[in-house]
Amino acid sequence: MAPLRWAIVSAGTISHDFACAVSTLPATDHKLVAVGARGLENARKFAELHGIPRFYEGYEPIAKDPEVDVVYVGTVNNAHYEVSRMMLEAGKHVLCEKPLCVNRGQARALLDFARERGLFCMEAIWSRFFPSYIHLRERIARGDLGRIERVEVQFGFPLTHVERVRMKSLGGGTVLDLGVYTIQVAMWAFQAEPVKIDAAGQLNDEGVDVGITATLHFPGGGVANIKTSAIDKLPNTAVIIGTKGSITVRIGVIEHNSHERNIFTKIRVLFFFHFTTMKLHDFWCPVELTDIDGTVRSYPLPASKVECILLNSVGLRYEAEETRRRIVAGELESPSVSHKDSLAIAGVQDSIRKQIGVEMPEDYIFKN
Question: Is the whole-model pTM more than 0.85?
Fold first, then answer.
């Protein structure tokens, strides 16, 4: 079969890392053929760096390019719906960065349209495709931790200077930017949607959240306590507690150096082990875990031709592989990040935003 022909929309940090990740996959399976950016010079530089043959100013030329099979959408949050729909209208499959859309109503409209068009569309929750996440799910499914009773998740960095986080006009806020990670890992553990949500938060002068705390109540009495912050560096851990033991997804020492919209992260990982405990390191992009029996399992990532900016971003290759696998099979969604999963996550984000008083213009257009 011919390689899947990828186009990338936007030439920012995450798009750069996605291109780096795809470069580590077999050329017989994946090929980067085009990139579009708001500025032609940015697109040209991006294409030159990554060896991409075609570059465009704007995104419409990508939609019109007949040699593109699938589009990776790496724009700011509030452009996800418009750009993804444009690509679907043109007959392109879509892998869209998280959050898929600004609210559940918008996400549902996009996913319904993708299904009507008979095209694959997936929210790029890359965490779930790491081998360590798959191993974690298998452990939980086998009952090795017993019944899951509680999940504790904290995720935060000093990000108040980053436009995509602080500005309402870009679909900002920690619920949309960081919250998706905390929500998805809780749902990954419980394998269910919460039945009740209690939330509180702090807003900036733009009216978007710079920090939240929330408790998600799951069927059977389980709870997930989540916290996000764009002000403080949090412990950045996820702890999954069952009746037989606990799994801790733990981050070590984190240093930040930010420049404009790019966040550079260096992490030194620490290892801990206790009886009946599994440790999963760097919970949003884990490449190592300490299993229940004390075995350290490593899933090293290959080196990319061009260096990634963010931690373990070569792991974006896993979601690219999943995208190809499902498209080749003629499937419209992935069971690991299903349409139902994306709608459930968006619904939790909507509930939290409503409780803490964060409103987006899209909330008045796309109703749940």
Answer: yes
